Amino acid sequence: MSATFAAPDAVRTAPDAPSPRGAGLVVAGALLVAHPALRPYGDATVDGMAAAFASPAWLVSHLAAVAGFVLVGLGIRPLSRAAAAMWWIGAGLVLPYYGAEAFALHALGLHSSGAALAAAADAVRNGPVQLTAFGAGLLLFAASAVLVAVRGRALALPFALAMVLFLPQFFLPPALRIAHGVLLGVGCVLLAAAVHRRAG
Known about the structure:
elongated
């Protein structure tokens, strides 16, 4: 007498189960929308710098960007290992700058104001070493995003466009910077769909 045993359904991987990496990309999208939406823009004037830098929203918005970039690096690996490696090198160059923006400028805003604060903020932001590293990191982010799209991931096109525009958007008014954040968030959600499709 023989019996045939079937593997329980519970131990099988459902083909339509959400990918953890895909879910991380959706969260990344929300965080990268939050960054420009929550960021105070008073630092555009000397008189507004102290209030902008000292605001809790300054910290939250910049840390949202940091977390978003990390989650993107984790999420794109299934789509292209080369692009993921490029992204992480870029992150190593970009994240120190965001850390200085988040922590150094926040501390300066709490303890100084006026021309002294403006001079200190300029020194933190615009030194040749930090600007070179930051710019190179953003170019690597853009190249990584384009590589994912070139590898045949049509869903990655909005994300690639948003990352190509990431450096230029710093020179735009707040409303357009927020619109760029929305484009980037949509791009991340579509990347998540690409990861889910590949997993399926």
